[in-house]
Amino acid sequence: MGNKSNKIIRKENWLRGSVYVVLCDYASFFNLKFMIEIFVETIGWIASFLIVGAFALNSFGNIASSSKIYQFANLLGGIFFIINTIYHKAYPSAFVNIVWVIIAISALLKLRKS
Fold first, then answer.
1. Where residue 25 falls among pLDDT bands split at 50, 70, 90?
2. Alpha-carbon Rg of the chain, whole angstroms?
3. What is the mean pLDDT of residues 33-45?
4. Has residue 68 been placed in a domain?
5. Helix (H) or strand (E) holding 27
6. How many domains does the chain have?
7. Which of 3, 43, 71, 97 has the fewest CB atoms within 10 Å, measured from its CB?
8. In this structure, is residue 72 part of a structural domain?
């Protein structure tokens, strides 16, 4: 008798432990998913500030479009937007930003040669 109840107690403890592990796994999964969403949204906002900021500074004559700072802001902003738009499955916007990054890289390489 004592042996049978001992097996039942072990099963209950095993079950309780398994449920706890599964719940912790789900909690960490959702926490990770939440953290990824926050990261993606944050870099999306940073991208917005970089690209709009560079455009505004250029439009008001504070930096030239041929400056490394202007092109680097466009490059970094474009990369961040690519991550953001692919995460949100906005593929046409991702394509535009891939082209944006290629243009920025080309401009930076041209500036480096001259």
1. low
2. 26
3. 92
4. yes
5. helix 2-59
6. 1
7. 3
8. yes
Determine the structural domain holding residue 89 and report its residue range: 35-113
Largest CA distance in the chain: 89
Amino acid sitting at position 112: R
Element containing residue 86 per DSSP (H, E): helix 68-87
Q: For residues 98 and 104, is the Cβ–Cβ distance under 8 A?
A: no
- Contact between 99 and 91 under an 8 Å Cβ cutoff? The reply is no
Structural tokens at position 49: 């500030």
Residue 108 lies in a domain: yes
Whether pTM > 0.85 for this model: the answer is no
Residue 69 resides in a domain: yes
pLDDT at 4: 53
